[in-house]
Amino acid sequence: MNKEKYAFWLIPSGEAYNLLKETIHHYSEMYSTPPFEPHITLISSLQGSLAGLRHMASQLAKIIGTLELRLEKPAHSTSYFRCVFLSVARDPAIVRANAVASDLFDLSPNAEYRPHLSLVYGNLPKIDRERIVAEIGDKFCGPVTVKQMSFYQASSDLPPDTWEQICSCCLHEEQQDK
User: Fold this and answer.
1) What is the DSSP string of the chain?
2) What is the pLDDT of residues 154-168, one digit of tens each?
3) Residue 10 has pLDDT above 90, yes or no
4) For the chain, what percent of residues have pLDDT higher than 70?
5) For the whole model, what pTM was predicted?
């Protein structure tokens, strides 16, 4: 039985991607936390055949298309994967994309879906988390375009350095194997 878990991530495009990646790597080096690709998790903890999930990735990308999302001010928490993060406004585009993904994978819609873009993973002390939030300020607040979705073998049960990208899909286009 396949016990691997998979996730679909929305990837910001253009200069926003570059700035977010630089920020993630800056704090990763500063605090010895794991680096990762800037992303907004659309749906996670999926299980199934890799071939079937790849096909679903292509279908999902065609259905949801390019997204215009809005990043909000940074926040922090004691959750490892939300140590420091940017909330994503729960506007109709992201709510619809999550609902479409849930429907496609025959999952109950997650009423508690809280889209976010993490900047730091870890268990940093509150003073460090507050310092990072203050340094970032409103630097990322505003619109961000998402033209790509990545399909990852990834689980919160495993360390981020073990996560593996399976493929990438241009939203509205066919997938590109990595």
Assistant:
1) -----EEEEEEE-HHHHHHHHHHHHHHHHHHT-------EEEEEEE-S-HHHHHHHHHHHHHHH-SEEEEEEEEEE-SSGGGSEEEEE---HHHHHHHHHHHHHTT----TT---EEEEE-S---HHHHHHHHHHHTTTT-EEEEEEEEEEEE--TTS-GGG-EEEEEEETTS-EEE-
2) 988 888 999 999 989
3) yes
4) 95
5) 0.91
